[in-house]
Amino acid sequence: MLSIITCTYNPNPIIFNRLIKAINGLIIPDNATIEWIIIDNNSNQSIEKLFDFSFIQIPQHHIVEFKPGLTSARIAGIKAAKYDWLVFFDDDNEPANDYLIKAVEAISQFPQTGAWGPGTVNVEYTDKTTPQWLNKYKSIFQQRNDEKVKYDNNSWWQFCYPFGTGLIIKKIVCEEYILRVEKKHYLLSDRKGKSLSSGGDMQIVYTALAMNFYAGVAPEIKLNHLISKSKSNQNYIARLLYGSAACNLPAYFQCYPNNFQRPEYPTTKEVIRKCYYFFKVVLLKDGFRELHFQFSRYLGELEGIVLLNRDIKKAKFVLIIERILKLR
């Protein structure tokens, strides 16, 4: 019994129609009950009216969530879901037609695992004019090609843990996640406005681990991650790296407060020394683009420390650099 949930806000029409077509083409496992919940996070135009869902055989539920942000939309979807397992497809995902078949197989074979993800994610840049250099950075958009089933329950993040793309997870885990959000134990938000944080994705998986479930990926579970022109550029990737780096430590310590170790914020001199290293070594060796990306990730790590230490104030020049690079 599977509830598919898609949260969307002003989706790219061409890409979203590919998701709709893929949903319609899904092979339903024997004796399975399926529903598709579409959460319209207050888009400029009604998703239900703008797109054609009439040919979809799976029962659908369209919900408008007026509170902005992926976290709010995701919670609305979880609360509306009827069934025991949830499958999250983003509005730029294109699952293989046997996605649910392979998901059910993994669930059946490894009952101790409460969170699954696709072990095969193919990143596709949908714009034909996308520059070739972007092929080097597909992993940033969650491309993966695992060769075998992998799972673990180590509290520290492991490479085999699933990303948010195509996440398959027990509903009881998501209900616990909602409870912790509502009790203010979890304070991170997912994508909202200009923020590209993925903290909620991580905290859902961490919640499964905290409930003594395992989390893993299976290569037979496959989907395409469709990247539009608005995302396939240097500035977007830099913001994505910044947002991801900023949420790593807060996501973990909010889930495991008993493990909390207050990280030290580097001195101004140490930050300047690190910046000097980036310009002297990274710029000369790998060029401005790689400098931009590594710098953005480093600044994100500093932001993560600030999120854990609210009494810390960033150096003014760090704020200026963040503003210049348009990371916030």
Protein topology:
Blueprint: E1 2-8, H1 13-24, E2 34-40, H2 47-50, E3 60-64, H3 70-80, E4 85-88, E5 93-95, H4 99-109, E6 113-125, E7 144-145, E8 150-152, E9 168-170, H5 171-182, H6 199-210, E10 214-227, H7 234-255, H8 268-286, H9 288-308, H10 316-324
Parallel strand pairs: 1-2, 1-4, 2-3, 6-10
Antiparallel strand pairs: 4-9, 5-10, 6-7, 6-9, 8-10
Helix pairs in contact: 5-6, 6-7, 7-9, 8-9
Ends apart, CA distance between termini: 40 Å
Radius of gyration: 20 Å
Label the overall shape.
Answer: globular
Largest sheet: number of strands, sense, barrel closure: 10 strands, mixed
Helix content: 40-55%
Question: Order of SSEs, N→C?
Answer: EHEHEHEEHEEEEHHEHHHH
Uncertain stretches of 5 or more adjacent residues: none
Helix count, per DSSP?
10
- In round numbers, the mean pLDDT is 91
Count of individual beta strands: 10
Structural class by secondary-structure content: alpha/beta
Q: Please report which band the strand proportion falls in: under 5%, 5-15%, 15-25%, 25-35%, 35-45% or over 45%.
A: 15-25%
Concise structural overview:
The protein has 328 residues and is of the alpha/beta class. Helix content is 41%, strand content 19%. It has ten helices and ten strands.
Polypeptide structure, described:
The chain is α/β, with parallel strands linked by helices and 328 residues long. The chain contains 10 helices and 10 strands. Strands 1, 2, 3, 4, 5, 6, 7, 8, 9 and 10 form a 10-stranded mixed sheet that branches. β1, α1 and β2 form a beta-alpha-beta unit. α5 crosses α6, α7 packs parallel to α9 and α8 packs antiparallel against α9. The chain is globular and about 65 Å long. The model has no long low-confidence stretch (mean pLDDT 91).
